[in-house]
Specification:
The protein has helices at 52-55, 58-65, 73-81, 143-149, 167-177, 197-207, and strands at residues 3-6, 12-16, 19-23, 44-46, 68-72, 87-90, 95-98, 101-107, 120-126, 129-133, 154-158, 181-185, 211-212, 220-222. The protein is of the alpha/beta class. Bound molecules: nickel (II) ion and manganese (II) ion (MN). Manganese (II) ion binds next to helix 1.
Length: 232
Amino acid sequence: MSKLRYLGQSCFLLRTQEGELLFDPYLSKSPHHVSLPEDANPSYIFVSHGHADHVGDTVELAGKFGSTVITTAEMGRYLEGLGCSKVERMHIGGGADFPFGRVKITPALHGCGIPGGVACGFLVKTAGITIYFAGDTGLFGDMSLLGMYHRIDYALLPIGDRFTMGPEDAVIAAQMLKARYVIPMHYNANALTRQDPELFAGQIAKATGSRAIVMKPNEEISLVPSGEEKCE
Ligand code: NI
Ligand code: MN
């Protein structure tokens, strides 16, 4: 059974029989006071862009676990310069196959935090599940293409406002993405991104065909592959 653990801000640990994938590992400096579970052993680390609340502990963790970093070309070079020895560089719109499944890099409307770089999101297909990790982004209309051409099971969307989409735009994103489930992220790390995720969940239920799952930092859920959903 695949499990997804929320580690605050935009950090998630996805554990499946295909391996462990870690997204935007902002941990040691996170105000959410979270850490990886003792038995975690991420073989891949996804980095959406260079802001500190996303790169986080990438260099340390990649060294400790021997993880391969998946990111954009510029971020990849930057992280290699900081000591990451295994980096898979990709870019917007490109897909690639890995032992755990397939990754496509999606656009994100946001800064990168390093000169010449761009921010991105990830569409990951692994263990029978399709996850869209939006990264830090504003709303953009091409999300409808993702919804049209991919059956997204879980969409991880920022709702913090100020630096990314706020809840209202994230509802519009959910309408376009048509994911089975929407998981809000990137909120309540500080006073500038204060949001009520339960209010957002209610709006998702009212305005979209998706269901929101509000995860507390350190909470883990079991993921349901699309074919195995119970009728209700
Ligand atoms: Ni950012
Ligand atoms: Mn951020």
